[in-house]
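Appendix B. One record, verbatim.
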Amino acid sequence: MLFPKKVKHRKWQTERMSQKRLRRPDTRGTTVAFGSYGLKALTSARITSNQIESARKVITRATTKAGKLWIRIFPDRPVTAKPAEVGMGSGKGDPKHYVFEVRPGRVLFEIDGVPEDVARAHLREAGMKLPVRTAVVTRR
């Protein structure tokens, strides 16, 4: 499971989830930079470290010894939660897990060193593990 070794601020302030801002495409990490094939997000969502790990396991099965995998996202945003049946007040809850906020256009995973049909099949299967709509893209 991915999470930061050390953080400057343990809790982040809640960001406003404006639908207008979330629909705006990402400007960084939008092209396949390392591998030959990539998995690109088409919608926005928060991806947890568990979901990233689940998708990574699916893609790793395709790479075997010859292939290489790059994970282009890292969950560094803490999500806090209060315990069940606790009254209102008495501050913000403790950090529960970490997420990465994905916007449309971000390349999430890249793969190289495997045949195209195998890469496409495994990337599509990995996309099923994530809470965003995805598409398989190739390097131009």
